[in-house]
Design goal:
Number of helices: 15
Distance between the termini: 65 Å
Structural class: mainly alpha
Largest sheet: 3 strands, antiparallel
Strand content: under 5%
Order of helices and strands: HHHHHHHHHEEEHHHHHH
Low-confidence stretches: 1-10, 167-173, 369-379
Strand order of the largest sheet: 1-2-3
Helix content: 40-55%
Mean pLDDT: 84
Number of strands: 3
Shape: globular
Length: 396
């Protein structure tokens, strides 16, 4: 069997189980910093990458995405190029970016269509298929960050990606992955039509209303739903003397923001807590997760669990639309493609369409962290609360 055929059939372990060889482990990489004082103890590329990844262990989603991109590059460098990451040149990274558009040979790099196995599985592959342009850009951004950190840490002499021309990214003319008013109304109908005859059915119904209220009214990410607790709710008197409820959320990048807890949201909170036999209002020391499993367990759901709940509602809505009106097949297909993150885009789009100040939309969604000055500008927060309360309603 030729060497190329042997390579095409080879399977490889994930990053943490890769065999180490002096030729490709990076201990003698041509781009290793020489003569300086390294700030990390790593002597090989794998250990250096692990040191970089260790910064993100408290953000599981970020850690998983960053590990994926580092792992892909490490495997490509050592298997396809037969050199360590610490010997890659600018030209190598250009080739890698082309490789991302169509990982070949597919038998080696790409998992069979429709099959996704854990990283520990013998048939695991690094790719599910060619990366979209957006995913290619994201991969380069992550790897550029990794190389820059390794240079700053004194492990590498230079960043081979720094020479790559960064294309200016034109703003998209519109966000396409969101639900328009008609489809959003159908999603809510799917929930309101659910049976409520048994205790379990009533709890399921209350949980769905609460989850979709959090995702839509607050524009939360799934990670923010599962990683925050009900102790984040608090009431504060504004400069106008009005008491308003807020929800403090720690989100992406470990950044904290406060989101208006509108009258509608608080009504759903009370409904959900009553169904779970909890006191009407949470207190500052309460450790109850924002969303709970059906039954008596007091634990947070997993990311996959929440994603599955949302997808089940979207799929049920798609089936109902398809069976009631074949002319709306496009709506059904759109819902089948949708994910929980679409509700975040839907929240932002609906707020903007209803003339909510874009600065308030930005702060509600946490697109930028609040500055120190904004901590004291309660009047600006109150205006944001008032506009969100007035214009952004779920209307069950």
């Amino acid at each position: 069997m030729s060497e190329s055929n042997s390579t095409a059939l080879m399977r490889f372990p994930p990053l943490e189980h890769l065999p180490r060889s002096a030729q490709i482990d990076g201990s003698n990489g041509t781009n290793r910093a020489i003569g300086g004082r390294s700030q990390i103890s790593a002597a090989t590329d794998i250990d250096a990458i692990k040191a970089w990844l260790a910064r993100f262990v408290n953000s599981p989603h970020t850690f998983s995405n960053y590990r994926k991109e580092a792992e892909r590059l490490l495997l490509w460098a050592t298997i396809a190029m037969r050199k360590p990451i610490s010997s890659l040149t600018h030209e190598d990274l250009v080739l890698y970016q082309y490789f991302l558009t169509d990982p070949q040979p597919a038998a080696q790099w790409v998992m069979p269509a429709g099959r996704k196995v854990p990283r520990s599985h013998p048939e695991w592959c690094p790719f599910a298929g060619p990366l979209s342009q957006a995913s290619q850009r994201q991969a380069v951004i992550i790897l550029n960050s990794m190389f820059s950190w390794l240079v700053a840490a004194g492990y590498l002499a230079g960043n081979p990606l720094s020479l790559t021309k960064q294309r200016s990214r034109n703003a998209a003319p519109r966000v396409s992955r969101y639900l328009d008013d008609d489809i959003w109304l159908e999603v809510k109908r799917t929930i309101t039509y659910l049976p409520q005859d048994t205790d379990r059915e009533r709890e399921h119904y209350a949980r769905l209303r609460w989850l979709f209220s959090l995702l839509y009214v607050c524009g939360l990410r799934i990670s923010e739903v599962i990683e925050n607790q009900m102790s984040g709710f608090f009431c504060r008197r504004g400069n106008d003397g009005v008491e308003r409820w807020w929800l403090e959320i720690t989100g992406k990048g470990n950044k904290t923001r406060i989101v208006p807890a509108t009258t509608e949201l608080m009504a759903e909170l009370l409904r959900y807590r009553r169904e779970k036999s909890l006191p009407p209002y949470p207190n500052a020391t309460e450790t109850t997760p924002l969303l709970l499993p059906i039954g008596h367990q007091q634990r947070a759901l997993t990311r996959a669990g929440v994603h599955g709940i949302v997808k089940s509602v979207f799929n049920a809505t798609a089936e109902r639309i398809r069976s009631s009106n074949p002319d709306l097949e496009w709506q059904a297909r759109q819902l089948e493609q949708a994910s929980a993150h679409w509700l975040r885009h839907t929240a932002g789009s609906h707020m903007a369409n209803k003339q909510v100040d874009l600065r308030h939309v930005r702060d509600n969604l946490g697109h930028e962290s609040l500055t120190t000055t904004n901590i004291y500008l309660h009047s600006a927060d109150d205006a944001r609360h008032q506009e969100t309360e007035q214009h952004h309603k779920i209307q069950w």
